[in-house]
Amino acid sequence: MAEEAELIKEIDLSGFGGISEAFVIPEKKGPPGILCLQTAGIFMSSIYPQMIRGMYGEGFKGYLSKVIKSLNITIPSLYPFHYLNKADRDLFCMTMTNWEGIQKWQFGKVNHDKYYCSHQGESLVDYADLNNDGVDELVTIFAPGRLGVFSVESGRLLNECKLPSDNFSLVRIAKTGLDETNWTILAGVTEAAYPPHTYGNPLVLLDNDLNILAEYDIPYGLGHTVLVFDADGDGFEEFLAGYTLLDHNGKIIWAAEGLEKCDSYLEAARKHADCSIIIDPTSKGQWKVAIAGSDRLYLFNNQGIKLWECEAIHSQYVLLGKFDKNSRCDYLFHLQCRQKMELLDIDGRQLWEGKLPANWPGGRPAAVPNDDCFHMGSPASVWHDPLENGNDLIIYNEAGWPYAVNGYGELCVTFRCTESTKEDIRKSIPKNHRPDDFGYGYRCLVLDLDLDSKEEVIIYNRNRAWIYKLT
Ligand SMILES: [Ca+2]
Ligand SMILES: [Ca+2]
Ligand SMILES: [Ca+2]
Fold it and tell me: Which of 69, 282, 439, 441 has most Cβ atoms within 10 angstroms of its Cβ?
C-alpha cells in the first residue's frame, strides 16, 4: 500500500512568467532559495530555424517520417515543424524566490502567458563564489551567445562576455586552483553545431573574470552532461564532459575507451552522452562512471576503461541509489525514454525490467495524444530514504503527475492532487510536438527545504509549484 505525501504548500508561479526550469540555490544560512527560469533553452540559438523534433504527423507523411527516422537520416521537411521567431529566442527571465515562492529579485522581462517552446534548459545555470566575497554568484547564458555573472543576492549583472556562437547552452563551474578565486567556467554546445564543429561542440573554458582560456572540440561532444568533481583526489575539481575527462587546466586526461575519436556528425548525434553519474566519488580516485550514451549504457573506470556496456533502445537517464530492498549497496536505475526502465547492479546485471505507467489523475489532457510522446531532460529524481527503511525511491515525472517507486517499479509514495493539478496548463500546443517542450507535464526537485535532514519534493509546471513532505 503506497503512502501519500502531505501537500505543505502550493505556489502560484504565474508572476514569474511561466517558468521552464527551477534550480535550487543554497543559502549560507537558512533554507535554500529557488531560482525560477524562463528560457527557450537550446532554441535560443538561430541554428534551429524551426522546431523539428515533434512526434510524427498522421497519415502518409507521418508514416514516411517514421521510416526516414528509422534510417537515421534527417529530412526536415518530412517532420512536423514549429517556426521559431526572434521573440522565441530572446525570451529570458529569472526570478529568485525563497522556498515559499516569495520573490527576492527578478532579472529580465517577464513574458506573461507567452506561448513558447523550450528544451534542455536544465543545464543553463551554475553558481559559485567566484569573487571570494562569501556569497555565491550565478552564471548563466542570458541571451543567445551571452554568458553573464549575476549577484545571487540582488540579481545584478556583475560581468558578461560574448561566447563564440549563439548555440551554447550548458554552464558548469569547477574549483581548479589554490587561489580563492581560481575557478574555471565551462560553457558548451550540447546539440546542433555550426561547421566545422561536430555535434555537441565546441566547449570553452573561462576564468572567473570571463576571459576565454581555451576552446576545443571533444569526441562525441558534450552531449547533455558535464560532471564536476575531484577525479584524482588532489583537491581540485575536473570536468567529465560527455565521454572526456578534462584536467583542471583544461588538458584532456582521457576520452573513454572506444569513444576516443569521432569525425561523423551523425555518429556523434547517435551516440551522444545524455546523462552520467559518478559511483564512489569519495574513493580517492577509485570512482567509476555510468554514462547513458543514447544507443548504449556504459560503465567506465577512473581511467576511462570500459567495464561493461549494454545496448539500449534509447539510454536517456540513469540514477544511482539504494534501490534494492534487501541490500544497502548502490544500484542503477536506467530509463530508456518512455520505452523501458530497468534496475541494474553495478556489474550490469539486470534485476528488473518494466515500463513505468503514465499518470493522469484528471484524465489525459486533450493536447497530449498519447502517453509516450514525452522526452524530458530530467525524467526522474532520487528521493533518499524517505520511508526511513534504508531504501531510496525514484520519483518519476515524465508522463503526467509524478509518483515514487522503488527499484522494481512498485508504487511507494503518491502526491495528493489538488484541483489545480488537474487543470490544463495550455489549451493547445502545435500538433504533433512534444508536449513537455511547450510546458505540458511536470518537473520535480528533491531537496531538504526545512533543514530537518529529510528531503521534501517540489513538483512544478509553468504555472504552479506544489511542495510535499512525508510525515
Ligand atoms: Ca561572491
Ligand atoms: Ca583533481
Ligand atoms: Ca526537510
Answer: 441
